[in-house]
Design goal:
alpha/beta, 2 domains, eight-stranded mixed beta sheet, 11 helices, 17 strands, 34% helix, globular
């Protein structure tokens, strides 16, 4: 049975950053990813500048790809009322198609080994041997001293571990397009519609990411994504304009079901969970990508800075709570302010009339530079 020091399950931002940081320090790392790079993911594709200094220091900032610079935020209600505000910290837009592939190449260059187009079916920790055993979809097994879980929002591994959130049904679906459209390249906008909200911002090469969190029930009711968009999203005049006057670049949208914002544990069964595997921040707070990068860094540091398993787990758990627990909690509370006519009108009015409230929401759902 093949043995590795560290196995990372999932090759998104958290997994790739953790892999890079560990291998750079000479650790043996195997990363398992079920797809083959490059590929698209359902994602808002906006990253807060809280991570930029870290990425620059580690030579992981994708300057050559040409990410967009974003410094303004726009919010609209279902009826089209608009509020605009500056983003003090700012951020950048880049597609996961380009960024994940860039980080994959960086990780490979420092010695990370990859098993692509491979899925982990289940894993367990063996206390007596003090190791993990992973069962793969190809029928073989692997062992590891440490495992980092970077398997996203919902996976077979979650199911095999009987994680609590897997027993809860979620009302949300995520849908993503890339489009060419006439929109301010320095603005990230969030447009409300009945039952959800849709974000738009520029990524690289003049392309815009259009991604929304919608209602599974509405999709069932209207029978198809185009029909649901026409009958629900188009009620917001800003969204109607975007959908009717943009060039859509995908043959069909990227879609993900059962998006669940319930709290998750950052350490379960001795696995360090990073990115969405440790909990999702609501998209309206726009920080899932930044949090994934930061968690990958913290998981790598916990392994590098400690000798025994309990010290590693305690450090990671402590640091995760310090940086992310309240942000995710606030994100879940702020989400109540969106997705229905009366409340979205109130929310946009509140942000428009009270810049202080708007800045406080931004401040409490964004992190500090690190």
């Amino acid at each position: 049975m093949q043995h590795s020091d560290i196995i990372i399950i999932g090759g998104g931002l958290g997994g790739l950053v953790a892999a890079h940081q560990l291998a750079k320090k000479g650790r043996e790392v195997l990363l398992i990813e079920k797809k083959y790079y490059p590929f698209h993911r359902v994602c808002g594709e906006y990253i807060s500048n809280e991570v930029k200094d870290f990425l620059l220091r580690e030579n992981l900032f994708p300057d050559e790809i040409g990410p967009s610079e974003i410094n303004k935020f726009q919010l609209t209600s279902i009826k089209g009322k608009t509020a605009n505000m500056p983003l003090d910290l700012g951020g950048f837009g880049i597609s996961r198609y380009a960024l994940d592939y860039f980080l994959y190449q960086k990780a490979e260059a420092v010695g990370v080994k990859f098993l692509l187009q491979t899925q982990v079916e289940s894993l367990e920790f063996e206390p007596k041997e003090n190791r993990f055993v992973l069962q793969l979809n190809k029928g073989n097994s692997l062992t590891a001293n440490h495992v980092i879980g970077a398997f996203g929002k919902r996976s077979k591994v979650d199911k095999s571990m009987h994680r609590d959130f897997m027993n809860q049904r979620s009302p949300f679906i995520g849908v993503k397009y890339h489009v060419k459209t006439d929109f301010d390249q320095n603005t990230v906008a969030l447009h409300n519609f009945e039952g959800g909200y849709c974000g738009i911002n520029q990524v690289e090469k003049g392309i815009f990411n259009l991604c929304y969190l919608g209602s599974k029930e509405q999709l069932r009711h209207f029978g198809s994504i185009p029909e649901m968009e026409k009958e629900v999203l188009h009620k917001n005049p800003h969204l109607r304009q975007i959908f009717q006057n943009s060039e859509f670049l995908f043959d069909k949208p990227e879609v993900i079901n059962e998006i669940n914002f319930s709290p998750k544990q950052p350490v379960e069964n001795h696995i360090l969970m990073v990115g969405d595997a440790a909990g999702l921040i609501t998209p309206l707070c726009g920080n899932g990508m930044a949090i994934a990068i930061h968690t990958g860094k913290l998981a790598a540091e916990a392994i590098l800075q400690n000798k025994n398993r309990s010290q590693i787990e305690n450090q990671y758990h402590r640091q995760w709570n310090r940086f992310f627990k309240s942000r995710l909690w606030i994100g879940r509370k702020v989400q109540w302010l969106f997705g229905s006519k009366a409340v979205s009108e109130f929310s946009v009015g509140l942000i428009k009339s009270s810049p202080f409230v708007a800045k406080e929401i931004m401040k409490r759902t964004h992190g500090e530079r690190f």
